[in-house]
């Protein structure tokens, strides 16, 4: 196990779980907000930012609920997960992000996700 710290963030997203899931689980959806470009072959996803490429393996997915990826170049058991939850009473859709970061990079990692989710909300037309 690494010495990275697990953290979770919650964002309320004004979208249907089905539409949101498309943006979390498909290369075309992810390239709209998460990376400049995303390609996939089977369980392997390539994320491209500013000409630099990172590979990730799709570990788990459940339609309209969650996706979990692990970066290929990191030799530990960390992952990042995007999970959709619908409040049974209000019907509000929330996106939970689970990720890991070094202690001295925790604030930066959280801010990066906040910026990414802000882009996602813009693409979805969510406030």
Report on the structure:
By secondary structure, this protein is an alpha+beta fold. It has one domain: Alpha-D-Glucose-1,6-Bisphosphate, Chain A, domain 4 (2-Layer Sandwich), CATH 3.30.530. The protein is 28% helix and 41% strand. It is built from three helices and seven strands; from the N terminus they run βααββββββα. It has helices at 17-25, 27-33, 106-124, and strands at residues 5-12, 37-41, 44-49, 52-62, 66-71, 80-86, 93-101. The longest helix has 19 residues, at 106-124. Residues 1-125 form the START-like domain. This is START-like domain-containing protein.
What's a concise summary of this model?
The protein has 127 residues and is an alpha+beta fold.
Gross morphology: globular
Number of domains: 1
Task: Identify the CATH architecture.
Answer: 2-Layer Sandwich
Radius of gyration: 14 Å
Total of helices: 3
Q: What fraction of residues sit in β-strands? A: 35-45%
Numbering strands along the chain, what is their spatial order in the largest sheet? 1-7-6-5-4-3-2
- What is the CATH T-level topology? Alpha-D-Glucose-1,6-Bisphosphate, Chain A, domain 4
Based on secondary structure, the structural category is: alpha+beta
User: Regarding CATH, which class?
Assistant: Alpha Beta
Average pLDDT level:
94
* CATH homolog superfamily: START domain
């Amino acid at each position: 196990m690494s010495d990275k710290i697990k953290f979770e963030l919650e964002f309320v997203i004004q979208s249907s779980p089905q539409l949101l899931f498309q943006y979390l689980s498909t290369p075309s959806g992810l390239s709209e907000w998460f990376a400049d470009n995303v390609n996939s072959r089977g369980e392997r996803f390539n994320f491209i930012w500013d000409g630099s490429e990172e590979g990730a393996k799709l570990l788990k997915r459940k339609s309209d609920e969650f996706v979990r990826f692990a970066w290929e170049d990191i030799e530990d058991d960390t992952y990042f997960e995007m999970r959709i939850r619908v409040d049974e009473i209000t019907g509000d859709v929330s996106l939970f992000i689970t990720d890991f970061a070094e202690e001295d990079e925790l604030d930066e990692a959280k801010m990066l996700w906040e910026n990414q989710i802000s882009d996602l909300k813009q693409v979805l037309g969510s406030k």
